[in-house]
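Researcher: Sequence of Tol-Pal system protein TolQ follows. Predict its structure.
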Amino acid sequence: MSVDLSLYRLIMDASLIVQLVMVILVVASVLSWLAILVKARTIKLAHRAADDFEERFWSGVDLAHLYDGVRRKTDMSGMEHVFSSGFKEFLRVRQHPPHVVDATHRSMRVAIARESEDLERYLQFLATVGSTSPYIGLFGTVWGIMHAFLGLSGVQQATLAMVAPGIAEALIATALGLFAAIPAVIAYNRFATDVDRVIGRFENFSDEFVALLARQTAGRGAADARE
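Model: Prediction complete. Tokens:
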């Protein structure tokens, strides 16, 4: 008795539940790879934009001139958004020196929180795929094996050839679960570290910018006192 154990035949002969599990895992894998590509590009662009902005910021350019150029951009994001939020608040409260530093810092923290939400987009999806796919695949495997053995209930003498196709098709679900989960877990861990690194850059810039404004405010206050 010959048994066709080709991958295509095994998938087509699988039970409806196992086929449904396979479809779910394939879709999850495709979507996770799309999320990985989008996230990799987003983080790369965030680092590049931060490098470009920091180079301009520390080049000695007038901050008011830099702010005018940044706020005209329609695609402002990242460190530019953090700077713009802080400098806008600084201009609003600079007539009240005791509150300048705290108000500016608070505004920049809000901007950093919003940027963090954008950078962390899709990470939860990758974490979900990575943590649930093996169990979804395991469910398909258990169901397939159970279905294979139930098919032997009316057979007087069972042979390996009779149960091999059912067990093989069930194990495909486990393989697909791992195929979906492993890249998602690796990508999640990598991107979580990268996002923390980008956010850390935003926070360091915020602290440096607030310290710079504090020194300017203190110097202006001392000059006014001498006059």
